[in-house]
Specification:
This protein is an alpha/beta fold. The chain has eight helices and twelve strands. It has helices at about 60-65, 85-90, 105-115, 135-145, 165-185, 200-205, 215-225, 250-265; strands spanning about 35-40, 40-45, 45-55, 75-80, 95-100, 120-125, 150-155, 160, 195-200, 230-235, 235, 280. It has a seven-stranded mixed β-sheet, with helices on both faces. A three-stranded antiparallel β-sheet has the order 1-2-12, with no helix packed on it. Strands 8-11 form a two-stranded parallel ribbon.
């Protein structure tokens, strides 16, 4: 089902839409509540944000402050933190959904978080402050415009990174070239954790890895499943506080093993699903919910 663009008619009050049509049926514009994205744009599908975190209490104030007001829910997956990660999350956002991770690794955390989501769209955001939550609107826009999977890229035109070393950039470039050659993809970035997708994508791919290689696995399997993928330029900032658990050589080898393993699994022949019925994109919609100005990086409330 294609998105519906609805320009404002002269003199029309977007809040004066009748609840029912003249035939007595529910008015189509009242079928689902809209979430204001800007003064001229609103979306109907609820958006869930999944944040895997372990000992990220000092970074969460920035991460939560950068998230748009219009998202449906935040799912924080706590990886057995020994600091105040959970307490800080609940203080910053009382409605946060906290999931206690039973296993270990980023892949395991994301799988647990995905299972707890109730939104139609799921967004993956790291808890170290490297991602700008205000970019979520670009990911969601790509999905409601027709993509199944919106993949963040630090190397697409408009993207960038402050965090990658030369060895990591080289490794990412080589692994990305291998995936493009082996699976017919056209990625400019491979190992990046800022992505968004329709929840139905989880029915088409199986996530069965526990480490940082989970992003590569997802990128490969959405292509093999024939899904529509759109890259989103994204800027990766330095981690604000703490030290990353990523190890370039160790995790690079794990990514390579995933690529080699997936090469031997046949490409899916299942047809690509359409966006969920009832999706509408409307211009304009409801009054804008003011978005708080972005907190200076590293500042704690």
């Amino acid at each position: 089902m294609s998105a519906v663009l609805r320009p404002e008619s002269p003199g029309e009050d977007p809040l004066a839409i009748p609840s029912r049509t003249t035939a007595g049926r529910p008015h189509p514009m009242r079928e689902r509540p809209y979430r204001a994205v800007s003064s001229h744009l609103a979306i109907a599908p609820p958006v869930s944000v999944v944040i895997p975190a372990m000992n990220e209490a000092r970074n969460l104030p920035y991460v939560f402050r950068s998230l748009p007001d219009w998202i449906h829910e935040v799912v924080l997956v706590d990886g057995n933190s020994t600091d105040d990660t959970v307490r800080v999350a609940r203080a910053l956002r009382p409605d946060v959904k906290v999931v206690e991770q039973r296993g270990t690794g980023k892949g395991d955390a994301l799988i647990s978080g995905f299972a707890a989501c109730t939104g139609d769209i799921i967004v993956m955001v790291d808890a170290d402050g490297s991602a700008d939550g205000q970019e979520i609107v670009s990911y969601v826009s790509a999905l409601v415009s027709g993509a199944d999977f919106a993949k963040g890229s630090r190397f697409a035109n408009g993207g960038g990174t402050d965090d990658m070393t030369r060895i990591r950039k080289l490794g990412n470039r080589v692994l990305c070239a291998v995936v493009n050659a082996k699976f017919g993809a056209r990625y400019t970035d491979l190992c990046y954790g800022y992505n968004a997708f329709w929840r139905h994508c989880l029915d088409e791919i199986t996530l069965d890895c526990t480490g940082f290689e989970v992003e590569t696995l997802m990128n490969i399997r959405v292509v093999k499943a024939g899904m529509r993928v759109q890259e989103i330029p994204s800027h990766e900032y330095d981690r604000i506080h703490g030290v990353s658990n990523l190890r370039a050589v160790r995790d690079g080898l794990r990514v390579l093993r995933v690529i080699l393993r997936e090469q031997g699994i046949p490409r899916s022949v299942r047809s690509v699903r359409r966006r969920p019925a009832g999706l509408r994109l409307t211009i304009p919609a409801v009054p804008v919910v003011p978005v708080a100005p972005t907190m200076p990086r590293g500042e704690v409330l």
